[in-house]
């Protein structure tokens, strides 16, 4: 488990892979081959369950929005 800032909770929280009954069932159905897939499970906040990649996506989208707003302000400053 690693500790990261959770953008959803607003606090530093523990992040880990959520292995549940579905994982156990898939391990039984695939005779243990499902272990190969587990490293690709997203790490999730232990408090709210949002995945770390979701937060990274939102950070990227907010940054793009910020660039768009700054670009629009520069455009207005140049044209007016
Ligand atoms: Zn959280």
SSE layout:
Blueprint: E1 2-5, E2 12-17, H1 21-29, E3 43-45, H2 52-79
Antiparallel strand pairs: 1-2, 2-3
The structure holds zinc ion (ZN).
Q: Can you tell me about this structure?
A:
This protein has one domain (2-79). It is built from 2 helices and 3 strands, in the order E-E-H-E-H. It has helices spanning 21-29, 52-79, and strands at residues 2-5, 12-17, 43-45. It has a 3-stranded antiparallel β-sheet with strand order 1-2-3, with no helix packed on it. It is elongated and about 70 Å long. The termini are far apart. The mean pLDDT is 88. The structure holds zinc ion. Residues 6, 8-9, 13, 45, 47-48, 50 line the site of zinc ion. Zinc ion is lined by residues 6, 8-9, 13, 45, 47-48, 50.
Structural class: alpha+beta
State the domain count. Answer: 1
Q: Pick out the low-confidence regions.
A: none
Mean pLDDT: 88
The largest pleated sheet is described as: 3 strands, antiparallel
Q: Taking strands numbered 1, 2, ... along the chain, how are they ordered across the largest sheet?
A: 1-2-3
Total E-strand runs: 3
Our Rg estimate from Cα atoms comes to 20 Å
Q: H/E order of the elements?
A: EEHEH
End-to-end separation in angstroms reads: 53 Å
> Given the C-alpha coordinates, what overall shape results?
elongated
């Amino acid at each position: 488990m690693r500790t990261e800032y959770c953008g959803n909770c607003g606090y530093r929280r523990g992040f880990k892979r959520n292995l549940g009954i579905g994982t156990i069932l898939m391990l039984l159905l695939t005779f243990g081959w499902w272990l190969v897939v587990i490293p690709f499970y997203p790490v999730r906040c232990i408090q709210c369950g949002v995945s770390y990649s979701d937060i990274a996506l939102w950070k990227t989208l907010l940054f793009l929005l910020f660039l768009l707003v700054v670009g629009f302000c520069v455009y207005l400053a140049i044209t007016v």
